[in-house]
Amino acid sequence: MIRVALLGVAHVHAGGYAAWLGTQTDVDVVGFAENDPELAREFAQDTGLRHLPLAALLAAAPQGVIVCSETAHHRAHVEAAAQAGAHILCEKPIATTLDDAHAMLAACTRAGMVFHTAFPVRYSSAVQELRAALHAGQLGTVLSYSGVNHSVAPDHERGWFSDSRLAGGGAGMDHIIHLADLLHHLGERVDAVYAQLRPVPEWLISGRDSTDAAGLVTLTLASGAVATIDCSWSRPHTYPRWGHLTVDVTGTAGLRSLDAFAEYVTVTSIHGRHWAGYGSDLNAAMLRDFLRVCSGHTVSVLADGQDGLRALKVVLAAYQAARLEFPVTP
User: Fold this and answer.
1) What is the 3-state secondary structure (H, E, C) of the chain?
2) What is the CATH number of the domain that holds 197?
3) Are 254 and 145 contained in the same domain?
4) Of 188, 209, 192, nearest to 200 (Cα)?
5) pLDDT tens-digit profile of 52-97?
6) Dihedral over Cα of 34, 37, 40, 44: its sign
7) 161 and 260: one domain?
C-alpha cells in the first residue's frame, strides 16, 4: 500500500487528483493539509478525506505528497515534505521566484527525496507522436513552433489565481509554463525571450490587481528555430470546456499540428452545451508514474525538478521582458 497526502488543496486540480487516487486499491490517501478552514471543510466534505495539520499529516509518514497549495506557498510545503522523507509531485509553476525554486530543489537533494513537476501534457499521445517524429527527423530542420494555450479564467473557481502575490502572475504564469516545458520536452532550449502581456479586463475576471489576462511571447531557440506562445484567459465562463493547448511545427520537410485535447464530443442538454472529453486521462497517467516513483521505480516521462525550474525561468524572463520591452535571456 502506497501512502500519499495532499499538501494544500487550493489548486483547481486537487479535487481531481484526490478523486483518482481514491479509486486505486493500492493507495492510502492519509489526508490533506490546508490553512484555509472554509476550503478545508468543503474539500473534506467533497472527498471524504481527513483534514490534518501539516505536522500531523507528515507524521503519518506518507511516501509521497502532492503539493496543490497556492504557488507562493509551495516552498514551505516542499521543504517540510522533504525533511519528513516524502517524495514530491508539485503543481506548476513550482514557485513564484527563482530563489524559492532553487531552495526547494536543494532541500530535496539534501534529504535524498525525488522532486517532480506536474506537467501532464507530456503524457498526451499527440505529444509523444510529435516528439518521436522530431527525433526521427521527419520534419527536416525545424524552423518554427506556434503554440496556443487559452482557457477560462481559473479565478471563478479559485480566486488566488488572479492574485499576483500568491500566483506570481496571471495568464502568463498559468499558461506559458506548459508550452515552455513542452518545447524543452521536444528537445529545444530557449536562448532569448520577448513578451507582451496585457492586464485583465474587469468583465473577464474578478482580479484583485492588474494581473495579466493575455500575452504573446516570442522565443529564440538554441537550435536556430523560433517559437511563439499565445497565452490567455480569453474564454468566457460559458465556454464548453476549460480551454485548449495546440502547437504547430514547421520544418523544411513538412508541417505537423498538435492538439493535446482534441478528443471530445459535444453534449447538448436542457442545461446547455459542453464538450465531454474521452481518451487518455493525462492526470491519471502522471499520477500513476508518481506512484511508481514512491515505490522506488524510475520513470522517464514525468518531469523532474530541473524541468520545472527550466520552465519557470522562461516564464519569469517573459515577465521581465514585458516590463523592459526588450528580449531577456532566461
Assistant:
1) CEEEEEECCCCCCHHHHHHHHCCCCCEEEEEEECCCHHHHHHHHHHHCCCECCHHHHHHCCCCEEEECCCHHHHHHHHHHHHHCCCEEEECCCCCCCHHHHHHHHHHHHHHCCCEEECCHHHHCHHHHHHHHHHHCCCCCCEEEEEEEEEEECHHHCCHHHHCHHHHCCCHHHHHHHHHHHHHHHCCCCEEEEEEEEEECCCCCCCCCCCCEEEEEEEEEECCCCEEEEEEEEEECCCCCCCEEEEEEEEECCEEEEEECCCCEEEEEECCEEEEEECCCCHHHHHHHHHHHHHCCCCCCCCCEHHHHHHHHHHHHHHHHHHHHCCCECC
2) 3.30.360.10
3) yes
4) 209
5) 999 999 999 999 999 999 999 999 999 999 999 999 999 999 999 9
6) positive
7) yes
Tens digits of residue pLDDT in 101-122? 999 999 999 999 999 999 999 9
Q: Verify that 184 and 46 share a domain, yes or no.
A: no
Quote the number of domains for the chain: 2
Residue 293: inside a domain = no
Q: How far apart are CA 182 and CA 170, in angstroms?
A: 20
Domain identity same for 96 and 159: no
CATH number at residue 46: 3.40.50.720
Residue 264: how many CB atoms within 10 A of its CB? Answer: 15
Looking at the fold, whether 137 and 53 belong to one and the same domain comes out as: no
The pTM of this model reads 0.93
| Full residue range of the structural domain in which residue 314 is found | 124-281+304-324
Closest Cα to residue 26, out of 2, 61, 45? Answer: 2
Report, as an integer, the average pLDDT of 288-310: 94
Q: Which of 117, 138, 160 is the last residue of a domain?
A: 117
pLDDT at 267 over 70: no
39 has a pLDDT exceeding 50: yes
